[in-house]
Design a protein that fits this description.
The chain crosses the membrane at residues 29-56, 77-96, 171-191, 212-230. The protein is an all-alpha fold. It is built from 11 helices and no strands. It is globular, with a radius of gyration of 19 Å.
């Protein structure tokens, strides 16, 4: 789980500091942040000298991911590489050699009852998932909406609140699912339906607003629930 945590944390942290209009050194900042996160987390989690090649691979994946956001021609390739990196991290990450983790003592000293039976690797995965569910997940949702058609994506301009509510919603969905609060998850889905009903009820005959909300919501929830089985 450490390998997956590092991949998600690198991509997520890079997107958090990314600027859509950044050029030159500002465009290199997200990659530098991702590299710093990989090195720091790798050492802290006990990867030792393996941190070097893990950081190099993770930085390459992050760089291509960011390239896909700057250049539409690279979008499909960047998504494919990220999916491949996640699958490799899940499948082969368990064989990644680890030693004594410098963060173990700090983690064990945390006086949080809910973390008493949670290992450091699982905690790190949770942090990585939460970072990814911010702007990075928005990129995936937008790519799916783009594939649904230009009219659906154009609706984003009139329903721009989804870009703000989306990350918050995904955090709540992820937290509720991990804790087994599925009734609360159902209530959240119902609340969103009530929130969006006035806008959808004034939809055009083409139904693009409803399609935007439905496609965006299901993809967003799917991303939030994707990593839950690992917990």
């Amino acid at each position: 789980m450490i390998a997956l945590a590092l991949v998600l944390a690198a991509v997520g942290s890079a997107d958090l500091v990314r600027r859509d209009t950044a050029t030159g050194r500002r465009a290199d900042l997200p990659v530098a942040v991702a590299g710093a996160v990989l090195v720091g987390a790798g050492i802290g989690l006990g990867l030792g000298w393996h941190t070097a090649w893990v950081a190099a691979a993770g930085t390459a994946v992050t760089s291509l991911w960011l390239q896909g956001q700057r250049d539409r021609a690279w979008r499909t390739a960047s998504l494919a590489v990220l999916v491949a990196a996640v699958l490799v991290a899940v499948g082969a990450g368990q064989y990644l050699p680890t030693g004594s983790a410098p963060l173990d003592r700090w983690f064990d000293s945390l006086d949080v009852p809910g973390l008493a039976e949670v290992g450091l690797d699982r905690f790190a995965l949770g942090i990585g998932v939460l970072l990814f569910l911010q702007r990075s997940a928005n990129v995936v949702v937008r790519a799916v909406l783009d594939g649904a058609g230009t009219e659906v994506l154009a609706t984003e301009r009139t329903l721009a609140g989804g870009r703000i509510l989306g990350p918050l919603e995904r955090i709540f969905v992820f937290a509720l699912a991990v804790s087994g609060q599925f009734a609360a998850f159902a209530a959240l889905v119902a609340a969103k339906g009530i929130l969006r009903y006035p806008e959808i009820s004034r939809d055009e005959p083409s139904g693009t607003k409803a399609e935007y909300v439905l496609v965006g919501s299901f993809v967003s929830w799917g991303l939030a629930l994707l990593f839950v089985p690992l917990f």
